[in-house]
Amino acid sequence: xxxxxxxxxxxxxxxxxxxxxxxxxxxxxxxxxxxxxxxxxxxxxxxxxxxxxxxxxxxxxxxxxxxxxxxxxxxxxxxxxxxxxxxxxxxxxxxxxxxxxxxxxxxxxxxxxxxxxxxxxxxxxxxxxxxxxxxxxxxxxxxxxxxxxxxxxxxxxxxxxxxxxxxxxxxxxxxxxxxxxxxxxxxxxxxxxxxxxxxxxxxxxxxxxxxxxxxxxxxxxxxxxxxxxxxxxxxxxxxxxxxxxxxxxxxxxxxxxxxxxxxxxxxxxxxxxxxxxxxxxxxxxxxxxxxxxxxxxxxxx
Length: 301
Hints:
Blueprint: H1 23-35, E1 39-43, E2 64-66, H2 72-85, E3 92-98, H3 100-104, H4 107-116, E4 121-126, H5 166-171, E5 177-182, H6 186-197, E6 203-208, H7 212-215, H8 222-231, E7 237-241, E8 244-249, H9 257-261, H10 272-300
Parallel strand pairs: 1-2, 1-3, 3-4, 4-6, 5-6
Antiparallel strand pairs: 5-7, 7-8
């Protein structure tokens, strides 16, 4: 297979206000490289609501609409229909929202938008908590993680509920394209965005975007941690095209989850027994994904 060439064009200028080592800025850069300039973004309350800079300036080379926390799905639906009415059906309409504004606060508007079948992109940059407002726990926060609202202490009140699988929620909506991606595999991310461009209807891509501030890791470890998430099967990379699963990166020999957890201060409280428990969950989720890939491809054949 011919190796994908990453586009040289840049649609994100310097001068943003993100934290050092922010994974969400890298995610935006790759997304815009794949989509090109003929794109309109809608961004709700989230880190990316402040990253572009202070109004009226922003560091992106594409039009940008700010909206309320919960309405990204509704906003991109309206933009899409307005452009269609003007005969501009070739414009990429993109909702770019964090996990809190997607998995929790914005899931109603997202569900409505994809159920109606609008020709939109919805990009969830997943930093696994409400990072912009103080590192509060979200539905996408992984099991065992510290946040400011799951602080632990003697009662060990860390986040013990499973991470909500928004990608699988979107698969259950029977939309034509769902994918996961992460910044450590840019060729995979860009290929998925470009593939989605060729498909009419709702497209959902969940991009794991490590946050040094909230994950409590060194800024220079962002890409390494992102890669370990895939190599340990903590965050598998796959796509679902019209119901058919395809895992796009399969580690030949998955690394133990401990290698991923130990680089992040938000997991430093975990005992060996708790890490073993998380390893069992990761292994079970991976087996389930392999089963979905096998069964969906058998049905297609």
